[in-house]
Amino acid sequence: MELITPLIATKGYTAPELERLFKRALRLSEEIGDTEEILPVLYSRQAYELVGGQFDRAAEHAEEAIRIAERNPIADSAAFAGRLFATLKLFQGEATTACEQLRQMLAQYDPVRHSASALRFGQDHFVACASYLTLGLWFLGFTDEARRYSERAIEYARSLNHTHTLQFGLAYAGALFAANCRDVEFLESTTAELLEIGKELGSPGWSAAVSGLHGKLLIERGRTSEGIAKLQAGITAFRERHSPLWQPTFCTWLAEAHATCGEIPQGLEALKIGRQAAAGGTRWMDAELHRAAGELLQVGGATNPACAETSFIEALAVARSQSSRTLELRAAMSLARLWKSQERDTEARALLQPATAWFTEGHSTSDLREAEALLRTIR
User: Fold this and answer.
1) What phi and psi, each to the nearest 5 degrees, are found at residue 73?
2) How are the residues of the chain apportioned to helix, strand and coil, as percentages rounded to the nearest 5?
3) What's the mean pLDDT in 349-378?
């Protein structure tokens, strides 16, 4: 059992050797009846399946871990048996449920009692839950609260002197959150730190993630060709490792970058890859995949406004079905711009005004500033 966490740290969650180790470790744990030892193994197996896009299997094993914890509530890690279940819900686009569960787990975290969770689970429970809660809150439209959890996750990760936990916090609560909410300065600082950690650890899975995050940073800084190459490298590395979890996000960014360069076929190919990856269960970026398709359909000489409008309407529908106010706002902006270009200002305002007015926080974010500026141009 001691081999699992170091193997994940060095080779990533999709290392082929893990399946065999999980079977051996679970068999041994069941024989000796050691519930406190079986929970980290179950968690690692669920993470292996989640990162590998096996969402149905991961859900089954997450429920198994919860049942074991319910039978043994005094076990130190019992309160966090549902950690992977909440993560599944987040990436499936059910962020409301995920955030509720993550808050409950954070409320039960004890820095003394759970201090060894980083060593036994690969990352500290508080940092992992706060990092995922950061992403969930951003998705739902509570960016300021998300930023507070981001800061708490990274600050606490630094205090633990556990590099893998810090890497996790910087990646999820740091760079991915920063990229999603388009905070370029925060993206730059967290990506720079991840690149330095990567020189020390060199984990293939994290290398792929950091390559894509670095690519997004380069694109935001105007170095689009370099950024496209880095993003493509990250996507290719994840595909080679059969790891679809980050691919829909990266493919959306890649398609947007190709759109700015007028490279329509390349952008459409990126979206095709993103949809294939999302089909395994990673549905939280579905609205963005539709929206990016609509943006591509407005570029170059072969524009198709009708199909672009359909894509934006689909993006709106998905975002609303997932209660993602952030992605609903982005889809509303894209559709409002299209309608404005067609002199359909009344429809554009009727769509964008309420989508913008809903927000009670996050007014310094790029999305809200952009939406408010767009509204001022609509008659």
Assistant:
1) -65, -15
2) 75, 0, 25
3) 97
**Highest CATH level, class, for 203-284:** mainly alpha
Place of tokens 């490298």: 233
With beta carbons less than 8 A apart as the criterion, state whether 165 and 117 touch: no
Q: Which pLDDT does position 45 carry in this prediction?
A: 76
Picking from 170, 173, 160, the residue whose alpha carbon sits closest to that of residue 119 is 160
Residue type, position 369, single letter: R
Structure-token match 């672009």, residue found: 308
The pLDDT-based confidence of 61 (bands split at 50, 70, 90) is confident
Reference 191, options 221, 161, 159, 152; nearest CA is 221
Give φ, ψ of 246 to 5 degrees. Answer: -90, -10
* N-terminal to C-terminal alpha carbon distance within the chain: 65
Name which residue leads in pLDDT, 58 or 188.
188
Query: Which helix (H) or strand (E) segment is 148 a member of?
Result: helix 143-160
In terms of Cβ atoms closer than 10 Å to its own Cβ (0-12, 13-18, 19+), residue 365 is: buried
